[in-house]
Amino acid sequence: MVEKETGEFIGNIEIMSQNDGIGEIGISITSEKQDRHYGTEAMKRIIEYGYNELKLNGFELNVYKTNPRAIHCYENVGFVNVGSGKEDDDIHMMLKK
């Protein structure tokens, strides 16, 4: 991802895998560009792309319990906490159409 105004690299977002119509999202934003709502904008766009272009039925992701900014971002775009993630310090979140 690049910042529109400057063309500067700000992070990555991808649908890492797809299983049974569910895409797993991975996202990272450089620390100096956090708290500017870039994550929310990127999540909205990749979700729209996944639904419209890839015909996915939903999304999942894992997030560290100690990352409240990310959790808030994911909740803002509709993700819900569905339990423990792959690791002890992860939360597994899902978004269904």
From TrEMBL:
It comes from the Bacteria. One of its GO terms (molecular function) is acyltransferase activity, transferring groups other than amino-acyl groups. Residues 1-97 form the N-acetyltransferase domain. This is GNAT family N-acetyltransferase. PROSITE patterns: GNAT (PS51186). It comes from Candidatus Fimihabitans intestinipullorum.
